[in-house]
Design a protein that fits this description.
Blueprint (H helix, E strand, L loop, with lengths): L5 H10 L9 H11 L8 H10 L12 H14 L4 E8 L5 E7 L9 E5 L8 H15 L5 H9 L1 E5 L4 H9 L84 H11 L4 E8 L4 E4 L11 H14 L5 E4 H4 L6 H7 L3 E6 L11 H24 L1
Parallel strand pairs: 3-4, 3-5, 5-8, 6-7
Antiparallel strand pairs: 1-2, 2-4, 6-8
Helix pairs in contact: 4-5, 5-12, 9-12
């Protein structure tokens, strides 16, 4: 079967419904529809090729590695020491630093703040490139672009290219379809499920979906809806699961993962942070709250204004909609941050998870314009 590691074997078993050792196109398509990975806005042919490639040696050539991203942030901080500082937000499950670059002329916490994040989900490689490009453009443009200088002088921007460093490197080197972090789930509080066939024994499950693990103690329904039965091994209606082998496993408890803890501390631990843009793929969508309930945010007009400005910067080819319209979710960063007074936008970029690296320059050029529009709208919202 060409399957070299256990996560791929398990996935193969789930897709191969007729147990003939071959993946038929209709089996693959049905599987991707069932998992929510094939949805509106997809380049279906490309997505199917990406899925097939996940059973082969991973090919991440041309994309920035974790080490390269860390070095790039360090180089920017050294080149522009008065404007930028590289900061570790904490360490991942496997001990990698979760690096951020703070950009701003004023002392920390003294200017309105924004956070731009990428790679909550390991396989979404392009989302790493977008925050990195923003950092480059803001600092390199400081001396020659009056608008860029204004942004750096009057705002504090935190760039976090890789929220999930362990999963990202695993996706790059072992299994390109990997989504979660690399937590070894020794104890989940749920019974061990039976494998789809009796010819192998599943080992200890690995991984938590970081964007289903966010938690607000004052609003526990954002993590688990009332009436949601624990220990279901299928995705529940919120596209969130208690099954530790599923891609959307929410974890043993809310905010259990060091990666989500680091992000909640960054965003909720700083009163000056006004808004967050979190990059995902795919779908060419600008998503606004809520994701866990079908209700408009109280500041809908502000969200619409900001999102439309970002879409205009993108050329108008993205769809602005509530997260709930994509599919219901629980435990997401955007809902938790919005509930705590931050403007929280989720960007679903592109038409597949891993477009060719040749598309990086054109993609990030557009999305940096959208990020700059977001920063300008935040500034206008605060001063208006």
């Amino acid at each position: 079967m060409g399957v070299k590691i256990q996560s791929q074997l398990e996935r193969f078993q789930r897709v191969d419904r007729n147990r003939d050792g071959q993946l038929q196109p209709e089996e693959v398509r049905d599987y991707l529809v069932a998992t929510g990975d094939l949805r509106a806005g997809a380049d279906e042919a490309r997505l199917l090729r990406e899925f097939a490639a996940s059973f082969q040696p991973t090919r991440a050539s041309g994309y920035t590695t974790y080490e390269q991203a860390a070095a790039r942030l360090d180089q920017l901080a050294r080149k522009y020491p008065q404007l930028a500082q590289r900061v570790s937000l904490g360490k991942s499950v496997e001990g990698r630093e979760i690096w951020a670059l703070r950009i701003g002329k004023q002392p920390e916490g003294k200017a309105p703040g924004a956070v731009i994040t990428g790679c909550h989900h390991a396989r979404e490689w392009m989302t790493v490139e977008v925050p990195l490009d923003l950092a480059d453009k803001m600092l390199e443009g400081y001396a020659c672009d009056k608008d860029m200088k204004r942004r750096v002088d009057t705002m504090e921007t935190w760039v976090v290219p890789i929220v999930n460093p362990d999963g990202y490197e695993y996706s790059r080197s072992e299994d390109s379809w990997w989504r979660k972090n690399r937590r070894v789930n020794e104890e989940t509080g749920c019974p061990k499920p039976k494998p789809p066939s009796g010819d192998f024994e599943w080992p200890t499950p690995v991984g938590v979906d970081l964007n289903r693990n966010y938690y607000d103690a004052a609003r526990p329904e954002m993590y688990r809806q009332p009436g949601d039965t624990p220990c279901s091994y299928q995705d529940d209606p919120s596209h969130t699961s208690d099954g530790p082998r599923t891609d959307t496993y929410r974890g043993p408890r809310g905010n259990s993962e060091p990666e989500t803890q680091a992000m909640q501390h960054l965003v909720l631990g700083r009163a000056n942070i006004q808004g967050v843009v979190d990059y995902h793929s795919y779908g060419k969508m600008i998503l606004i709250p809520w994701g866990y309930k079908d209700e408009q945010p109280a500041n809908l007009a502000t969200y619409q204004r900001v999102a439309e400005a970002m879409n205009s910067a993108l050329g108008g080819d993205y769809q602005v909609q509530p997260s709930m319209e994509l599919y219901p979710t629980t435990g997401t960063s955007s809902d938790v941050f919005h509930a705590n007074g931050k403007l929280a936008i989720t960007m679903e970029i592109g038409t597949s998870f891993q477009p060719p690296a040749s598309e990086i320059p054109a993609t990030v050029e557009k999305l940096t314009r959208a990020n700059l529009a977001f920063l300008d709208q935040l500034a206008a919202t605060r001063s208006g």
